[in-house]
Amino acid sequence: MSLVAGQGPLSTQPAGWFTPPLAEGTVYIEPHPRRIQAFRGDTVQLDTEHALMVHRAGHPLSYAFPSDEVGNLPHEPVIEAPGYVSVPWDAVDAWFEEGRKLVHYPPNPYHRVDCRPTRRGLRVTAGDTVLVDTDDTVIVFETSLQPRLYVAPARVRTDLLQPSQTTSYCNYKGTATYWSAVVGDTVIADVAWSYPETPPESLPIQGFLSFDATRVDVLAELPSSGTTATCGCEL
User: Fold this and answer.
1) What does 188-224 look like in DSSP terms, one character per residue?
2) What gap in Å lies between CA 20 and CA 16, rounded to an integer?
3) How far is CA 66 from CA 77, 167, 232, in A?
4) Could you give the count of Cα atoms lying within 13 Å of 173 in the half-sphere of its Cβ?
5) pLDDT tens, position by position, 79-118
6) pLDDT tens figures, 197-233
7) What pLDDT score does 230 carry?
8) Is residue 229 a contact partner of residue 118, using CB atoms and an 8 Å limit?
């Protein structure tokens, strides 16, 4: 996630607007004074505290490094930052920022996750079978994303869920495991996900579940959704 993704200010579908509008192709670059390390095997290929963070529309968030610090790593010049270069993410085996191993992309310094206990209702059904019906939820406000409700397993018909082989990763919530619904003879794949181990900022939803509205019917009382509190009959 970055300023250029989701509904970020430099994305193709920003939640807000600039006045006057930014010029097309605007790139935002800023100092990123954190220790960045890159490894091939156990060997350090890059170790710097002089990186820049590059926010470029249409591209993942990326680092730029002083050209004299990348050694023999493959690199390309960053035109908007003279003297700096980019290194392909797959040029090394592992990236670390301040000792934390990164997956897929750098963490965004502007990204925030707020997890708030709430009485917002959530009702989830698979066909005629109710999987969740409660107003004991946690709402997650995450930068550039729509709010989402999570619910404790105790509020879910977990007897109708089975773990799947699907996983995904988020720099801010950790590795997600997915769950399929088994209703009679029907299996609906990956209807829900949860994060068994989260970083500190997402601890309130550790082990909680959220549901995919494209796979099951989800009635969620979310900000500006227009949904009234018609759910909340505890299972």
Assistant:
1) EEEEEEEBSS--GGGGGGBT-EEE-TTTSEEEE--TT
2) 12
3) 10, 35, 55
4) 26
5) 999 999 999 999 999 999 999 899 888 988 888 899 999 9
6) 998 889 999 999 999 999 999 999 998 755 554 555 4
7) 53
8) no
Residues 6+ apart with CB under 8 A from 184: none
| List of E strands, the chain | 27-31, 36-40, 43-48, 52-56, 62-66, 76-77, 84-86, 94-97, 100-102, 113-118, 122-126, 129-134, 137-142, 148-150, 161-170, 174-183, 186-194, 209-211, 217-220
Tell me how long the chain is. 235
Give yes or no for a contact between 41 and 176, defined as CB atoms under 8 angstroms apart.
Answer: no
Task: For tokens 């879910």, name the residue.
Answer: 156
Q: Which two tokens stand for residue 202?
A: 């997402």
Sequence-separated (6 or more) residues with CB below 8 Å from residue 21: none
Rounded to an integer, what is the distance from CA 53 to the centroid of its chain?
18
Q: What percent of the chain has pLDDT over 70?
A: 94
| Residue type at 146 in one-letter notation | Q
Question: Residue 209 is which amino acid?
Answer: L
Provide the β-strand partners of residue 142. 113
Query: How far is Cα 225 from Cα 1, in angstroms, rounded to an integer?
Result: 23
Alpha helices per DSSP H over the chain: none
d(CA 221, CA 62): 36
For the CA atoms of the chain, what is the radius of gyration? 21
- Which amino acid, one-letter code, is at 22? L
